[in-house]
Amino acid sequence: MGIYRDVILPKLCDLSMLNERLHPYRTRVIGAAEGRVLEIGSGSGLNLPFYRPGVREILALEPDPALLAMARRVPHSEMPINFIEASAEAIPLDDNSVDTVVTTWTLCTIPGAATALAEMRRVLRPEGKLLFVEHGLSPDHGVRRWQDNLTPIRRRIGGGCHLNRPIRLMIEGAGFRIDRIETGYMRGPKPMTFMYEGSARPK
């Protein structure tokens, strides 16, 4: 598993996230970020070109050193970017120190997602916002059954990816108030394409 996890999997993750159907989600979610931004699971840096001038600084947090190395090579604007090799379950930032937290297709893979969301809330300023787009649990019973059956396999080959996490409930359970949320299927296999997109604030 060492070669697969350390060499092959980062390249597969990068390749899968290059899907052009994800661009509209990135444009909307990343484009709403402001001030000092913490991006959770920044991966290979595919979000970096989508940030707008209202962003003062980007803190790109990623636990995988191979993906972080890819991100450092991504062309981007002149805004300051600090790359942080760390887990979202223990964010190395002070309380109330960022204006925006961004998470895109990341909550599915974090082992301790509840802990990570609590950390995001901790580092957000009281008036700050969490911007998210994630795939997760479908409201359709038949699709949910497929998600439950496929998740053990997906976790093994997809870097811990869960297809069946209830994203809205997780965010609200971590002490956030949802300001906006839109859900629905993106084109593709339904067990993998039910999207949650929106914003939330600390309660």
Helix and strand arrangement:
Layout: H1 2-16, H2 23-31, E1 35-40, E2 55-61, H3 65-72, E3 81-84, E4 98-104, H4 113-123, E5 124-135, H5 141-157, H6 167-173, E6 176-185, E7 194-202
Parallel strand pairs: 1-2, 1-4, 2-3, 4-5
Antiparallel strand pairs: 5-7, 6-7
Number of helices: 6
Question: Helix and strand string, N-terminal first?
Answer: HHEEHEEHEHHEE
Q: Give a short account of the largest sheet.
A: 7 strands, mixed
- Mean pLDDT across the residues is 90
**Helix content estimate:** 25-40%
How many angstroms separate the termini?
41 Å
Radius of gyration of CA atoms, rounded to a whole number:
16 Å
Strand order of the largest sheet: 3-2-1-4-5-7-6
